[in-house]
UniProtKB/TrEMBL annotation:
Example of a GO biological process term: visual perception
PANTHER family: CYCLIC NUCLEOTIDE-GATED CATION CHANNEL BETA-3-LIKE ISOFORM X2 (PTHR45638:SF23), CYCLIC NUCLEOTIDE-GATED CATION CHANNEL SUBUNIT A (PTHR45638)
Organism of provenance: Gasterosteus aculeatus aculeatus
GO CC terms in record: intracellular cyclic nucleotide activated cation channel complex; photoreceptor outer segment; plasma membrane
Full protein name: Cyclic nucleotide-binding domain-containing protein
Amino acid sequence: MLFSVFRQESAPPPPAHIVINAYADEQLRSIAKRMKERLNLYKEKVVDQYASSPEISPPVTEEERIKKEEADQKKKEEQEKKKKELKDAGWHSVDMVLKPVETLMDPVLGNTIDPFTDRRYIAWLSLVTLAFNYNTWFITARLCFPYHTEGIIPFWFVLDTLADLIYLTDSILFQARKQYVKAGDIIKDRVVTKKNYRSTDRFMLDVMSVMPFDLLYLRFGFKSIFRINRLLKVDTFFEFSDRLESIMAKAYIWRVIRTIGYLLFMLHLNACFYYVASDYQGIGKTKWVYSGLGSAYLRCYYYAVRSLINIGGLNEPHTVFEITFQMTNFFTGVFVFSSLIGQMRDVIGAATAAQTYFRSSMDGTVDYMVNNHIPSLVQNRVRTWYTYTWDAQGMLDESELLDKMPLVMRTAIAVDINLSTFQKIDLFKGCDQQMLVDMLLRLKSIVYLPGDFVVKKGDIGKEMYIIKSGAVQVVGGPDNSIVFVTLKAGCVFGEISLLQSSKDGGNRRTANVKAYGFANLFVLEKKDLFDILVHYPESQKVLARKGRKLMKAKGPAAAKAEVEKQKGLVLFGPKPPTPKMLRAFGGKNFLAKIKVVFYIHVQ
């Protein structure tokens, strides 16, 4: 009865949905759903004005896009221009303040500085490097060791101030004056060099390196950690190394010193870490830590040397921290010292590369002579040639070094060494100067041992010789025991052979010339001369004319034979002997004894 009453009081179920057309019903439901979503979007739009609109944005045309980009670019350029003007105004104010100081230093430093050749700049870099090393070594030491006591703080303050003044002077007076190359031109305008320096990363590092974080002393006390930014001046150290190597005759000496400095600094850092670790564990609490006796730095540095180099004999660590620190030390020492030893090997290898090449060449030649049973006399002369050439030149072949240089550099060196000598040669007077320069580039250096014959009488003349160092003698007689004349450095002989024809033996040597002691000669071959004369026809005519005159002055070949036959006086020189010259040998009595006097030009 109760159940039937409950059924009567409950609400009747909703009538079933009548679907007349399924497609139309689906479309109506979809429209109603979209309308509901759109209504929700408009509600959000009313609440948040930046909400996106449901409508699709109209497409942007190409013209509108270009205009928008141009407007954005123009706006950006205006902002950059304003920023640049503001920056220039700030720097102008700084320049106005610094102008009296810069003007005061102009007579000393000049308008600008050549950083590659100005020795004053390199000397200044050495001072900046000294200040950088002071900061590098003492900031780390003062940071770890208890060196900030009341009595020594004024001393540190004075040294810190001096180092900071050096940093500031370098940035204001020196770096801003450095010349630089732009598109191949050397910029020497100080206004431009100053702007260039201020646009570089180095300037930003220099500014950061002198930021006065030292003022935090007033709040936190005198702590060297506030000077850690001074280490950003490291570029100056590497620049000083490069400049010093470029002016040193033996740059490897500085490289060795620098590598040793790296080693000492690594030991310094390890000593600092060891003291910090000892302080963390407790000074003198275990046998492994620093005991607290004696000089703290020296004791810790001694430990660093024994630990990093793995000498041994150290106290055994016991705690986990001590064991970990010691193992890290050992691994670091192996890595660091293997790197430094490799670097030292490279430095020494580069320094002795030329000597190693000399030794290998000499050893190879000696082995060849021994295997082929060359006489000992010849072997000794070959060894002597190798030894003297190395001692005199520092290399076996100068051309190997010069060939690596640009043509301009080779020309400058050749002109500086030999052009003045070439200009004194009668045969080449009146020739084109550029032709003489081209001839200088074709010269070859040859070393002759004492007693070596440079030319022999009757040989075909194909070269001319310039004496670079040493001396040669023109000799004759049955056993070449008669010395007619001695030619020394700067003299020239054999130049006529370059222009003579081989017809009828016209270019044969007329005398014997041998080295007196060790002689270093420059040789110019006939083929090289003819290759050069192709480009200088006027000079070729001048040489041909002078060659004919010299040949006429030389006299007939029969007269030369008569000289030897009569054992008369034979003089060698640029001109035939005058009566005054002959009287210098003994006056009338001497002249009466001479049957034939004839002038021979060595060719």
